[in-house]
Specification:
Chain lengths: 398, 342
């Protein structure tokens, strides 16, 4: 194994590189360090990887840069578990001065559904393109099914189904013909392809529309056809870039149900990116938060939601003055504190050692207060988003 | 932004990668087949076939009429059959079939290439296409191959039609030599269309909007056709002013001018056609010195054989091929380096 991607140790690096490091660290630095630990921890491997060690151990950018140069591909991949399907280590893509993806560490295991979340322009699509070998990484290592997409793009693309962001089809051809073309490009013999395409079209519920021209399809139909298209090659990995974008809520539900079914039926490993939170929540085993090119947090949703301390935060609202909640709530066993809500003055936030929703509701009712709002915090992605994506949902200016 | 060492390593990696997986996928053939089917079903194919067909057949019709009318005087005229293509009738302003072809062939080339890559991009099919196990160059190769195929098909059909109509109307059977010249002219015309096709594919890679690419393409064609005819000579005149101090200096300056004019593919094609379709043409570039001029004056009129004619314009043929390859290579390289995302 040759050392392809690691920079040579002769010091001949573009001058801008070293200068940019501390700048990149200005943002969500502590979160990022933690993220790499969590990402690796979640895959069940020890985090003695050089990646984590180098970053946490060396606080100054200069020494870090020196350490990085000595790391070889082999050592970067030393901690990769046997059944890892998608592996990225210190993956970086720069467009001029802008780091679209910055030192990404990611491990996705067989059979997993991983959600890549982040605002527009956070580097999700760039990451996906690098996984497919459609864009060359500036630095770092990628392995998909053990293959390097930069060096063996064809082998990777034979096994990875891809639904691009804003998928399009040849309008003059029918849905079926579009899939046929894909099958042909994959070298699948016609006789074999026909039955499979038919099955797929039925599976995505396009059986009736299969022989209409693709230009007549609605957005949701095109998205479903795109999923069928990604499955034509019978992939073992499915990469979906913004699969739910620009579809109406009912369509999203339908699409997610379809995906859930397909994942179960076809034994797929799935990476899906989205900037819409709730939609992927139900589908993903693990999620990763992307912000300004960095993976700021990754892990199972539950774990991210509760963090290390197992406290539960409840948002509570009642009819009348919210301050009336405080004495009642504090009397409930397990409740530690009550505070005003950060954004909504009609609500209070109850922090407790465990989920006290039921006893709290009973207590409030007993005190003659009528409950108007009771919600456990952190269980939905928006909270996590607020926590992990510091610059907010709008993303940074590009 | 990358250090030279890194660039070299990159190039090395990608080359090795490409060699490592020269899989017998034949992706370009699949793409070419699909593109060809698209072209043949497209409105633009029908429209161009009709337009170019009329442009080619109308002059031929009147020319053959004129030839028939003056048949007695023309007895014994060598290579009479080629007149069908190379002579114009006064009824249509003296425009010949080959002049019409020279005018319209670039249009055909541009029409089948200007949206090759950018339409895939705007339709959102490019990333889907490139996510299939094909090489990226298969896309450009396949599209170019399909374009050339459809152009060849169209031109061959038209030339066959003209030849057949000519045989019927004139009642003379072309000699093998004449037929060979027509075929050579056809091949040269396909090559010329290939240049414009490559140029259009280049535009489709560089310019994101298909409409803008078409405008630039047609604009270039129109500009080169309308203004090239007098702008280029003007430029040549300024760059290489005619030297009238003595005869040899004069010939030297004019031949420099003529060489300069040959940067235009239109001029190259003109030269090739002149030599191929007129066996009497025994010089293309003019005279390099007084001696050549005098010997040409003293030469008796004679017919060149086809291989002599081809030899005469061989540099032009090579130059046109080189220009085409150059433009195609540029399109190819730019496409390979382009980012996939819009």
């Amino acid at each position: 194994m040759t050392d392809q991607r690691t920079p040579p140790s002769d010091g001949r690096r573009p001058p801008g590189r070293r200068a940019r490091r501390p700048q990149a660290g200005l943002g969500p630095r502590p979160a990022a360090t933690r993220a790499s630990g969590e990402a690796d921890g979640a895959t069940g491997t020890t985090t003695t990887a050089p990646s984590g060690a180098a970053r946490t151990a060396t606080p100054t950018a200069g020494t870090e840069a020196t350490r990085r140069r000595r790391v070889s591909v082999a050592s970067l991949l030393a901690d990769v578990p046997e059944d890892a399907v998608i592996v990225a280590r210190r993956l970086t893509k720069r467009y001029g001065a802008l780091a679209a993806v910055d030192s990404l560490d990611l491990t996705i295991q067989r059979g997993e559904v991983f959600g890549l979340l982040g605002p527009n322009g956070a580097g999700k699509t760039t990451t996906v393109l690098m996984l497919l070998g459609l864009t060359e990484p500036t630095q770092g290592v990628v392995r998909v099914l053990g293959l390097d997409p930069t060096r063996e793009p064809l082998a990777v693309k034979r096994k990875v189904g891809y639904l691009p962001d804003n998928v399009g089809f040849y309008g003059g051809m029918t849905g079926r013909e579009n899939l046929r073309y894909t099958a042909k490009l994959n070298g699948i013999p016609r006789s074999e392809a026909e039955a499979w395409i038919d099955e797929l079209l039925h599976e995505v519920r396009l059986g009736d529309a299969a022989d209409n021209k693709a230009e007549t399809y609605s957005r949701g139909m095109r998205q479903r056809l795109g999923i069928a298209d990604a499955l034509v090659k019978r992939p073992s990995v499915l990469i979906l870039d913004e699969p739910t974008i620009a579809i109406d809520p009912a369509g999203v539900e339908e699409l997610l149900a379809l995906l859930r079914r397909l994942v179960a039926e076809h034994d797929l490993t799935v990476l899906l990116s989205s900037h819409i939170l709730g939609q992927v929540q139900s589908l993903c085993d693990r999620v990763g938060f992307f912000s300004a090119g960095r993976l700021v947090a990754a892990g199972p949703l539950e774990e991210l939601a509760h963090g290390t301390d197992r406290t539960v935060e409840l948002e509570v609202g009642i009819e009348g003055r919210p301050e009336a909640i405080d004495p009642v709530a504090l009397a409930v066993p397990g409740v530690r504190s009550v505070a005003p809500h950060e954004r909504d003055e009609r609500l209070r936030v109850v922090t407790a050692a465990e989920d006290v929703a039921a006893p709290l509701a009973t207590a409030l009712a007993g005190a003659g207060l009528s409950l108007t709002h009771l919600r456990r915090r952190g269980a939905d992605l928006l909270e996590l988003y607020r926590r992990y994506v510091p610059e907010g949902i709008d993303g940074r200016a590009r | 932004m990358a250090a030279p060492a890194e660039t070299a390593r990159h190039a090395d990696t990608s080359r090795r990668a490409r060699r490592a997986e020269r899989a017998p996928s034949g992706g370009w053939r699949t793409i070419a087949a699909k593109e060809l089917a698209d072209h043949l079903e497209s409105v633009r194919f029908i429209v161009l076939l009709v337009v170019v067909g009329i442009a080619a057949i109308v002059p031929m019709y009147f020319t053959s009429g004129a030839i028939t009318d003056s048949a007695p005087q023309l007895a014994g005229q060598p290579a009479l059959f080629l007149w069908l293509f190379a002579r114009g009738s006064n009824d249509v302003g003296g425009i010949t079939t080959i002049a019409f072809a020279a005018l319209f062939v670039p249009l055909v080339g541009i029409a089948f290439g200007f949206d090759a890559v950018n339409s895939e991009r705007s339709q959102g099919t490019l990333s889907r296409l490139l996510a299939q196990p094909i090489h990226r160059d298969d896309v450009v190769n396949g599209k170019f191959a399909a374009g050339i195929a459809v152009i060849a098909l169209m031109l061959t059909a038209l030339v066959a039609l003209i030849t057949a109509l000519g045989i019927v109307r004139l009642g003379i059977i072309p000699t093998p030599e004449e037929l060979a010249r027509v075929v050579a002219w056809l091949l040269a015309t396909i090559l010329y269309a290939g240049f414009w096709l490559a140029f259009a594919v280049l535009l489709s890679v560089v310019i994101r909007g298909a409409a803008s690419a078409a405008l630039v393409g047609f604009g270039t064609w129109l500009g080169l056709t309308l203004f090239g005819a007098f702008l280029l000579p003007l430029l040549a005149n300024t760059l290489f002013p005619p030297d009238t101090t003595d005869a040899n200096a004069f010939f030297a300056s004019t031949s420099a001018q003529q060489l300069f004019l040959r940067i235009s593919p239109a001029t190259l094609y003109q030269d090739i056609v002149t030599a191929l379709m007129n066996p009497e043409a025994n010089t293309i570039l003019g005279f390099g010195n007084l001696g050549q001029y005098v010997s040409a004056q003293e030469q008796s009129r004679s017919l060149l054989t086809l291989d002599q004619s081809i030899l005469l314009v061989w540099p032009q043929i090579v130059a046109l091929v080189a220009l085409t390859v150059l433009v195609f290579a540029l399109a190819y390289v730019l496409f390979l380096r382009q980012e996939v995302r819009a």
